[in-house]
Amino acid sequence: MLCNRSLTTTPFKYLAALLGLVLCLGAPYAALAASASSSSSAKPALTKAQREGKKLAFARSKGNCLACHEIDDGDMPGTVGPKLSDVRQMIPKRSVLFKHIWDETQFNPRTPMPPFGKDLILSKKEINKIIDYLYTQ
Ligand code: HEC
Fold first, then answer.
1. Who has the most CB within 10 Å: 52, 64, 101, 120?
2. Which ligand 1 atom is nearest residue 112's CA?
3. 42 C-alpha vs ligand 1 centroid, how far in Å?
C-alpha cells in the first residue's frame, strides 16, 4: 500500500512518499540481513549433558581446559595446547579422546596436561560429559 503511493506536490506528502519508498526498499534488505546473521550464528541448543560438559570444561576448579586450549566461546584461553574447536576432526574416535583426557601422559610422558582421570580430578562420568560437549564443536 505504502509502495504504491504516488508523489504529490506538497512537501509533506512528498516526504511521506519518500519515507514510504525508503521503507519499501529497506525492508527486503533488513530481512535479508536478519536471516543472514541468524543462520551464521545459530547453533543447535546443547543437551543437558553437553551443557554440563561445557561447565566442567570451563570451570577453573574442574577441567580448566581453557587454561591451555582454545574452545568455542571460552574467554581468554591459553595457547599451550592445540585448539579444541575442531576436536571431532582431530580425534574422531570417542575412546581415543577419552584416553587423552584420562591421561595424556600415555601419549606424551612430558605433557603439561594433567592426567584428569588417573589423578581423580574428573570422574569417568564428568569426562564423558566433556566429550559430549567437545563433539558439538
Ligand atoms: C596445563 C595445560 C593443559 C590443560 C589444563 C589441559 N590441556 Fe589438553 N593438552 C595440553 C597440551 C600441551 C597438549 C598437547 C599434547 C601434549 O602435550 O601431549 C594437550 C593435548 C590435548 C588433547 C589431544 C590433542 C591432540 O591432537 O593430540 C586433548 C583432546 C586435550 N588436550 C583435551 C583437554 C581437555 C578436555 C582439557 C580439560 C579437561 C585439557 N585438555 C586441559 C595442555 C593442557
1. 101
2. 1
3. 28
From ligand 1's centre to the CA of 119, what distance in Å?
Answer: 15
Residue extents of the structural domains in the chain: 2-41, 48-134
Residue 96 beta carbon below 6 angstroms from any ligand 1 atom: no
Sign of CA dihedral 97, 102, 85, 108: negative
Are 127 and 117 in contact by the 8 Å Cβ rule? The answer is: yes
**98 Cβ partners below 8 Å, 6+ apart?**
127, 128, 131
- Over residues 86-95, the mean pLDDT reads 96
Does this model's pTM top 0.85? Answer: no
Kindly indicate the confidence band of residue 97, based on its pLDDT and cuts at 50, 70 and 90.
very high
CATH class for domain 48-134?
A: mainly alpha
Ligand 1 atom 37: the closest Cα is on which residue? 65
